[in-house]
Amino acid sequence: MTDSRQGPLLVLRILSALILLAIGGIHLFLIFDGVGGLLGTMFVLNGIAGIVLAVAILVTRGALLRIVTILSLLFVIASLAAILLALTVGLFGITEVWSFTLVPETVIIEAIGVVVLAITSGLAFRRPRAVGSAA
């Protein structure tokens, strides 16, 4: 990887990890706030996945980093889609309302996460140019 790309990619990886930690943290917070049942189980899994992906995006390199960024992007898209479905038509028999704890904040963070992780993934997949080649 070239030095000119290392800085922006590092910043985006850190920002991506913070977003993933925020998503995971929100879901784990909601468990302690009293969410239980099927929704609680899904929130625990979401929280663990967010934390694991955040760590992975910081410690991986090369081809493994590319895989982790794509998995993280898919995770955030799925999480955002799940809350939007729950807010509109319901998901697994669960309906959500905008006034529930942290729903607006979660939608905003996850929407930003989709954009940030898409950029991070794109930058991770860019190949360095060969020295002396024309642009």
From TrEMBL:
Keywords: Membrane, Transmembrane, Transmembrane helix
Transmembrane segments: 12-32, 38-59, 71-94, 106-125
Organism: Leifsonia sp. NPDC080035
Source organism, top-level taxon: Bacteria
Protein name (record): Phage holin family protein
